[in-house]
């Protein structure tokens, strides 16, 4: 699953945004251009799924800081997400045989309308569109195989006067009705005032929450993993990297995972001879590594460089965490410029299995990212954030033909032409 398009209106510094995403996306731009606000869009979606709409609004600073300060109540806050999603939903036995439904694209959009006075809001639009293929299935022994594609259709779920409205667009050859697809307890549900479809079972059949609730936004602080970590911490990497020792302990206890981790670290840091985790009497953990310079003794995390810790956490996030959508803020921090090209190649490799968004200010990162992967954030004359693809601009192509590197154009602010 991956998010391939996002549209936004009246969200923080954005007046209007329409942008396509690839598997690997590098967000660049000047300070205060809107890079963080772009990340906040995904954070907002995740928080809605995991904590509910009211809490998600509060986590963004409340209505006052969620909407654009210039537009305010004159326009709704609007978000639309188009996601690729190949998922076999269900099979239904009919007189014509077994019919399967496989979703291939999901479009979700909602709008919040703000009160003219105060900080209140209401849901003005809430709509889920699942595009599907309808397939005739055939059972062969214990297996079920696809026999014939009967056509494409849509399952449309929306909010209407506080209730759920379900519409189907099904090919004529498909002998299915609404009651064959949607369980009875979901057909006439009432929705609470501040509850979006994104938070309900309608969004979890099939499990679409994997796109939104499992968004990870990493902003590693290398000083935190240098401290001993209680063994009772989370089993997935914290977004600041603070529980790195716990994650490394789990990885190093598996022979194959440990070999993979060591090879990845060794590729970036050839001086590393081994990685391990030490357990103390107070049931805390601290990771350590052995360098080729001091083969007789391990170095504890407290003595390991910030860059080494950052790269280790980065490798874990890219290759050992299962989240399908990963945002990494300024991954090049504390990393020597000579290693940036390898870090970028590692991210491109990892993006074959998960969608990656990176924010950066580093010209070396821009140099190796690939022009087709770069998204430029900047402000227009009215102060609204815009996002463009430098690869689509003829002026940029002309500069590159004259042997001016993309990183040089970035430094000289020529990508906005």
H/E element string?
EEEHHHEEEEEHHHEEHHEEEHEHEHEEHH
Which value, in Å, is the CA radius of gyration?
Answer: 24 Å
Q: In angstroms, what separates the terminal alpha carbons?
A: 34 Å
- Strand content is 35-45%
For the biggest sheet, the summary is: 7 strands, antiparallel
Total number of strands: 17
Mean pLDDT over all positions: 89
In the predicted model, the low-confidence regions spanning at least 5 consecutive residues are none
Characterize the structure shown:
The chain has helices at 35-51, 53-59, 63-66, 178-181, 184-187, 209-212, 244-252, 255-268, 306-319, 337-350, 363-369, 394-401, 406-411; strands at residues 2-11, 14-20, 24-29, 77-94, 97-114, 121-140, 143-160, 163-169, 215-218, 229-230, 272-279, 284-291, 299-300, 325-329, 355-359, 374-379, 385-388. Helix 1 (35-51) packs antiparallel against helix 2. The protein is α+β, with helices and mostly antiparallel strands and 417 residues long.
